[in-house]
Structure formats: C-alpha cells, structure tokens
Known about the structure:
There is one protein chain. The protein contains 6 helices and 2 strands. With about 120 residues, it is mostly helical. It has a two-stranded parallel ribbon with strand order 1-2. Helix 1 (about 10-20) links the parallel strand 1 and strand 2. Helix 4 packs antiparallel against helix 6. The chain is globular, with a radius of gyration of 16 Å. The protein starts with a strand and ends in a 16-residue tail after the last helix. The relative contact order is 0.13. Mean pLDDT is about 80; it is low at about 115-125.
Amino acid sequence: WDVIMGGSWGTTLALAYAQEYPERVGGMVLRGVCLFRQAEIDWLFARNGGADELNPEGWKEFEKSVNVLNDSGKEINRYALNRYHDCLLGVDPALRVSAMSAWMKWEMSIFSLKKKGKQSATNNT
C-alpha cells in the first residue's frame, strides 16, 4: 500500500502500521486523530468528560445501549466505557452487535459537533 487512511482508532492503527513498516507507506491521510491518551479517552467516553456535554442526547443513548441505567451522578469515571467493554466481550452475540453499533453511532455523532464557547477537540493536552 502506498497511502494509508484512518480515522479515530483507525488513525492509531495506521500510525502503528507506518512505524512498523515505513518502507511500505508512502503517505497517510488521517482524520479524527486519537492516540488514546487518558485525556482523549476521558473526553470521548467519560460522563462529564467533554463530548457528552456537546451531545447529551447522544451520550444518553450510548449509555442506554450499554446498560448504564444509574443516573444518580455517582458514576465512576469511564463507567460507560467499562460497560461497553463488558458488552463487547460478553457471550451474547446480539448484545455484542448492539454494543458495536452503539459505539459507532456515538463516535460518528461527535465528529461534527460544535457548541459556542466550547472546544470540539482535545488539542489542549
């Protein structure tokens, strides 16, 4: 391959591939660069992390899809992400597919978000 394309997690995979096989990569097109640093994970997948405030309805839908039912405000950091992990690796195939769909829907819903006075990316870390 001469040119590698990637977005979000695909960016991370593209970078890893290019580092491992630089002789095979002539160029890269990356969007939604996410290197999965703690600040990025929290911004994307933690309640009160950032993205959830830009799209509260989308976040609630993601939480509901991975069976986060408690809205008491006592959620531990990254609870929805941990529930997603449990659903994705669980024994129920339908739940795995549902979790994958919820992840994609949430991730795609935040790509074009903008809110007055707020950043829509984690470029401050």
